[in-house]
Amino acid sequence: MRPTVHILRQATRPAISNIAGSCASLPSLLSLSQSQPRNHAQHPRLQQFSTARTMATRCSSSSPSSSSGRGGIEKLPSSPIRVLRTVDSFRRWRRPHLLDQRSVALVPTMGALHEGHLSLVRAAARENHHVVVSIYVNPAQFGVREDLASYPVTWDADCDALVRLDRELADDGHNLGRISAVFAPSTAEMYPGGFPGQEVDSKGSFVTITPVGEVLEGRSRPTFFRGVATVCMKLFNIVQPERVYFGQKDVQQTVVIKRLIRDFMLPIEVVVGPTARAEDGLALSSRNVYLGERRRAVATVLHKALRAAEERYKSGQRGRDAVLGAAERFVDEVLVGQMALGPEKRVRFEVDYISLADPDTMEELDFVHSAKGAILSGAVKMLPVEVPQEGEDLGHSGGPAVRLIDNIILPPAEQ
Ligand SMILES: Nc1ncnc2c1ncn2[C@@H]1O[C@H](COP(=O)(O)OP(=O)(O)OP(=O)(O)O)[C@@H](O)[C@H]1O
Ligand SMILES: CC(C)(CO)[C@@H](O)C(=O)[O-]
Ligand code: BAL
């Protein structure tokens, strides 16, 4: 059996719409430059959700720990970093910084922190007085069949990483600020009217950003950007940051967030940090822990395929087929090589999409305009190992199918 490589083709692509006046310019993409009832557990959908979160917590390396000092103020161990869990407590912390005009940056995360997250915190500390890191696994952005229940939760390791990083920031004289607070709310706190559910037709207060949120990742994960835009709107309203920091690894997410900020007139600057990678090029991602050794070795296929396409662009090719053809051939070769191995050795994967898109709209391009550049992006599903070997490390949670994404920005070229 040979998985199909699905590269977005002309026939299935939406028409390229008016791109003038769109918000995310390529230079900015390149820049690093309570309320409500407490009876959620009685709600059938939330009972389901509570079970899922309990499982996620069980999968975690340890349970939450942080120290509560005098007056019940919770801090990360041996550090001045506050832990705030409610909207009210966060607002009490925030108010004086509004009055004394100290800038506050927000780095939104879902925890399971890695060097990619930490690079965003470093960037935020360079140009803001206070850095707030939010850690919240937002159920609304997970599809009903996605990995909410097994999503890695590593609270203690996250706390250690932030405390270490804060010391590093204190020792380095080039920063304006340090990590001031971790915002770690519960779902009851984030959805005071009750969690609306993960279904496509769930009813509730949602923010949707279309059409950009409907293509690529949005096509495969129809509730994903609705969940992301909704939770980010909530986080932005709670934290009221001057700047927010997002990673280029989730490039379509950065375009959605820029639209949200522009269209809802939020006084926030978006800063996008470059993708942090492992030595072999794999983009760091919290979900990489699912891979296990065998699949980890092949997981670079997407990055390498995108690099092959990038080479075509660098050599002067501008047409879709010429640029993406290189990625397609690379993926084909890897698939053929893997399928030639027996099931006890091989790694199977499916390409969800490989795209060449406009940087402002994420709409597919036939041709890259040199003055504007483009975004090459892709998603692959690494399928579970078929025949595990004795003692084989299959990855977190038994090595389920893992969806990996990556992208490369093709910058405007000399004309
Ligand atoms: N390798 C990376 N380099 C730079 N930023 C990153 C990287 N990985 C994630 N980020 C950014 O960190 C922020 C929080 O992401 P998140 O907590 O979802 O981590 P993740 O590794 O992307 O997780 P997942 O595996 O679930 O996609 C997002 O802005 C995301 O783009
Ligand atoms: C932005 C975000 C924290 C919203 O939950 C999430 O989508 C992520 O971690 O990229
Ligand atoms: N990094 C984006 C979060 C998600 O995939 O759910």
List the helices and strands and how they pair.
Blueprint: H1 26-30, H2 44-59, E1 67-68, E2 74-75, E3 82-84, H3 87-99, E4 104-109, H4 115-127, E5 130-135, H5 155-171, E6 178-183, H6 187-190, H7 217-220, H8 224-239, E7 243-247, H9 251-263, E8 269-273, H10 292-298, H11 301-314, H12 320-339, E9 349-357, E10 374-382, E11 402-410
Helix pairs in contact: 8-9, 11-12
This protein binds adenosine-5'-triphosphate, pantoate (PAF) and beta-alanine.
What does the model show?
- By secondary structure, the protein is α/β, with parallel strands linked by helices.
- It has two domains: 10-22 and 279-410, 2-Layer Sandwich (Pantoate--beta-alanine Ligase, Chain: A,domain 2), CATH 3.30.1300.10; 33-273, HUPs (Rossmann fold), CATH 3.40.50.
- The protein has twelve helices and eleven strands.
- It has helices at residues 26-30, 44-59, 87-99, 115-127, 155-171, 187-190, 217-220, 224-239, 251-263, 292-298, 301-314, 320-339; strands at 67-68, 74-75, 82-84, 104-109, 130-135, 178-183, 243-247, 269-273, 349-357, 374-382, 402-410.
- The strands form three sheets. It has a six-stranded parallel beta sheet with strand order 3-6-5-4-7-8, with helices on both faces. It has a three-stranded antiparallel beta sheet with strand order 9-10-11.
- Helix 5 links the parallel strand 5 (130-135) and strand 6.
- Helix 11 runs antiparallel to helix 12.
- The protein is globular, with a radius of gyration of 22 Å.
- Bound molecules: adenosine-5'-triphosphate, pantoate and beta-alanine.
- GO terms for molecular function: ATP binding; pantoate-beta-alanine ligase activity; transferase activity.
- This is Pantoate--beta-alanine ligase.
- Its EC number is 6.3.2.1.
- Residues 45-59 have a biased composition (Polar residues).
- InterPro entries: Pantoate_ligase, Pantoate_ligase_C, Rossmann-like_a/b/a_fold.
